[in-house]
Write a structure and sequence with these properties.
It is found in: Cytoplasm, Cytoskeleton, Cilium axoneme; Cytoplasm, Cytoskeleton, Cilium basal body; Cytoplasm, Cytoskeleton, Microtubule organizing center, Centrosome. It is built from 12 helices and 8 strands. With 351 residues, it is an alpha/beta fold. It has one domain: P-loop containing nucleotide triphosphate hydrolases (Rossmann fold, 3-Layer(aba) Sandwich), CATH 3.40.50. The chain has an 8-stranded mixed β-sheet with strand order 2-3-1-4-5-6-8-7, sandwiched between helices. A hairpin with a 7-residue loop joins strand 7 and strand 8. Helix 2 crosses helix 7, helix 3 runs antiparallel to helix 4 and helix 6 runs antiparallel to helix 10. The longest helix has 31 residues. The radius of gyration is 23 Å and the shape is globular.
């Protein structure tokens, strides 16, 4: 009998949790899920491997991948389990977002959005498309869960708002993401060599977006010190370890801002001349920041942003023998279609 694949094990684990009465009273279990989404080749796999202390070279993520980690809590106490999901392909595989986020996993689910700082023109559309698609699905799942367990949904909403102090001046001006969100800017080692004005716009924009969504924000690179800080943040999501309270908002250093500790007054207004801001027609603060950002970093065309939808045709996965067989099968399929079409036409004529 063949051994189970990692995907089959993950699917069975999700189904098992669902059948074990996970609709209970909303109390958290020792299992949490962290879903990494973001820029293609942005460093998501590297971060996951570092968090799990796995010394192995990262491989390109094909579609949706799963792994897990364990952490001992004490003697004779069951280990905490963290489920790590990673979406490959940047924004080209948005449909797969719905697979790991279910009504059974939602209450212990977190999102980590990794954005490639070295590609500022792709940054906003990547962020916008992924967050919109994720939020749309999470809202649907929360609505479904609310019909069965309204208390659990209420507790989730209260928990999201708990990151911000009740007397915070921005409470009425933000719209927290429905589940915990961390935004990571990767490849800081390249970003730090950007022009000062460009770094200022990117830093202020990401601080605004993170603050608006009630998210934590931090920059990282291959630096061991930065990776250790990121590891601490991911461990907090995955295992409930104490959250860091440190903050760095200096654009000349790697940003590190914990959710709820920033403010609109500290971030300031969008970096655009006062006489130009009135010319930007926007219906919301988020739209205004988008227009300002895209004025300096115009997005590439949709065609260049979207990756190949069929991974089998992606050049990075090229294998000559497999590709030759694929071409042969495609030709056989086309021949079959043509012969089938002729057969149906003949049948119609005979009838």
């Amino acid at each position: 009998m063949p051994s189970e694949t990692l995907w089959e094990i993950a699917t069975a684990e999700v189904e098992k949790r669902g059948s074990n009465g996970s609709e209970g009273n909303g109390v958290e279990t020792g299992e949490k899920s962290v879903f990494f989404i973001g820029s293609k080749n942005g460093g998501k796999t590297t971060i996951i491997l570092r968090c799990l202390d796995r010394d192995e070279p990262p491989k390109p993520t094909l579609a949706l991948e799963y792994t897990y980690g364990r952490r001992a809590k004490g003697h004779n106490i069951p280990k905490d389990i963290a489920h790590f999901w990673e979406l490959g392909g940047g924004t080209s595989l948005l449909d797969l977002i719905s697979i790991p986020i279910t009504s059974d996993t939602l209450r212990t689910f977190s999102i980590v959005l990794v954005l490639d700082l070295s590609k500022p023109n792709d940054l906003w559309p990547t962020m916008e498309n992924l967050l919109q698609a994720t939020k749309l699905h999470v809202d649907k799942v929360m609505m479904k869960l609310g019909k069965k367990n309204a208390k659990a949904v209420s507790e989730m909403r209260q928990k999201i708002w708990s990151n911000m102090q009740k007397d915070h001046p921005d409470r009425e001006l933000i719209d927290p993401f429905p589940i915990p969100l961390v935004i990571i800017g990767s490849k800081y080692d390249i970003f730090q060599d950007f022009d000062s004005e460009k770094r200022k716009v990117i830093c202020k924009t990401l601080r605004f977006v993170a603050h608006y969504y009630g998210a934590s924000l931090m920059f990282t690179s291959k630096s061991e010190a930065l990776l250790l800080k990121i590891r601490g943040v991911i461990n907090q999501l995955a295992f409930g370890i104490d959250k860091s309270k440190s903050t760095c908002v200096d654009q000349n250093k790697p940003l590190f801002v914990t959710a709820g500790l920033d403010s609109l007054s500290q971030i300031g207004s969008p970096p655009v001349p006062d006489n130009d801001i009135g010319k930007l027609h926007a219906h919301s603060p988020m739209e205004l920041w988008k227009k300002v950002y895209e004025k300096l970093f115009p997005p590439k065309s949709i065609n260049t942003l979207k990756d190949v939808r069929d991974p089998a045709r992606d050049p990075q996965y090229a294998e000559s023998e497999v590709d030759e067989m694929r071409i042969q099968k495609d030709q056989e399929l086309e021949q079959y279609k043509r012969s089938s079409s002729k057969s149906w036409k003949q049948i119609e004529l005979d009838s």
